Amino acid sequence: MNLRPVGPRTRLTLSDRDARRPPAFGDRDAVKSLLAREVERLGHLQERLIASKARALLVVLQGRDASGKDGVIRTVFDGCNPLGVRVTSFGVPTELERSHDFLWRIHAAVPPRGYIGIFNRSHYEDVLVVRVRRLAPRRVWSARYAQINDFERMLSLNGVTILKFFLHVSREEQRERFIDRLHDPEENWKFRAGDLEDRKLWSAYTRAYRDALRKCSTPWAPWYVVPADSKTVRNYLITRVINETLSGLRLRFPRLAPEVRRLRVD
Ligand code: ADP
User: Fold this and answer.
1) How many structural domains are present in the chain?
2) Phi, psi angles (nearest 5°) of residue 88
3) For residue 157, what is the domain's CATH number?
């Protein structure tokens, strides 16, 4: 099973059922070994990305609290050379960031050619948390979908390949992960009181995610909904989309310049 980008005819219920482990994935160990193979393949594809310097890859991760954004970053890129990976987390904007347009801090973090950039949250917060918590009036956030599409199109025309993943976790699974976090002394530092407030706003977030995914899944920057209740399946599906995309770019190792080819090592 491979993920398909969100399109005009995609059913976007974002119900709990869609978050569960898809039945096509049977045996847990089998998925684990498929994942290991894809993670290794991503490492090889990244070497081509670095060497060819033809394009950058930007991976945008969005999802509710405990949907596994950190876990994806740790596992999916485990076979990559860290020198070529840049991770940026976007939290509440600073005063300086707020005094600029909402894409200013985002643009500054876009990876240069040869690099993989990972966004842990992103400019989509400006149509998600900002909308749900009424941090800006409707006329401000509702104009942003088109601004985001224009921005992402500009990036894609300038060498950035963009993939966006919504880690879709069910309400029940989030509850279990929250409880685990609260009881585990090595995990509970991740818990914020605000996480529970966002959980209370579950349906409002669902509506905001649905609009963002619908309005901003484009040929140049597609959105994928990832069933994220199973961590292994989630990681496998994401790695697979990244690998298919990178291999579709047909990146080549550069040929040696003639003067270098003539050199002899004594
Ligand atoms: P995380 O929850 O991703 O592990 P943090 O605990 O630092 O990381 O939380 C980041 C917080 O910043 C989230 O609650 C998120 O909604 C908020 N945030 C991110 N971008 C914006 C934004 N543009 N405006 C307001 N809040 C934002």
Assistant:
1) 1
2) -130, 130
3) 3.40.50.300
* 142, burial (CB in 10 Å: exposed 0-12, middle 13-18, buried 19+): middle
Kindly state if the Cβ of 84 falls inside 6 Å of ligand 1: no
Q: Assess whether pLDDT exceeds 90 at residue 6.
A: yes
Q: Is 125 in the pocket of ligand 1 (CB under 6 A)?
A: yes
What pTM value is reported for the model? 0.97
pLDDT at residue 1 greater than cutoff 90: no
Nearest CA to ligand 1 atom 2: 65
Nearest CA to ligand 1 atom 21: 92
Tokens, residue 12: 């976007």
**What atom in ligand 1 is closest to the CA of residue 65?**
2
Task: List the structure tokens of 102.
Answer: 């909402």
Which amino acid residue places its CA nearest to atom 5 of ligand 1? 91
Asked whether residue 262 is assigned to any structural domain, the reply reads no
Is residue 213 a part of any domain in this protein? yes
Cα(150) to centroid(ligand 1), Å: 23
Give the list of residues 6+ apart from residue 127 with CB closer than 8 angstroms, or none. Answer: 141, 144, 145, 148, 208, 211, 212
Q: What percent of the chain has pLDDT over 90?
A: 94
Structural domain of 47: 16-250
